[in-house]
Design a protein that fits this description.
Order of helices and strands: H
Number of helices: 1
Mean pLDDT: 90
Distance between the termini: 131 Å
Low-confidence stretches: none
Length: about 90
Amino acid sequence: MLEQKDLEKITSVVENAVNKAVKPIKSDMRALQLTLENETNKGIQIIAEGHLDLTRKLDEALKIENEKEMMKLRINRLESELKKVKEKLEETA
């Protein structure tokens, strides 16, 4: 039967083997975390800022379109009024 010293020795050997196997995995995980923090997250932030700019530009474009639409309505009304004025002028002349 195994003695306590033997069990401790086996435990130590197994722990060392596990630590050696886990160490590269920890290193890879840390590299992956750094990549996420430094590259991926910053890339997402840049894209998000770009979308905000696009939203602002769209709002500006829509504002201009609304103004353009209002001008068309005014021009249409003015054309109608001018037509009425010309008709009255022709009647009186």
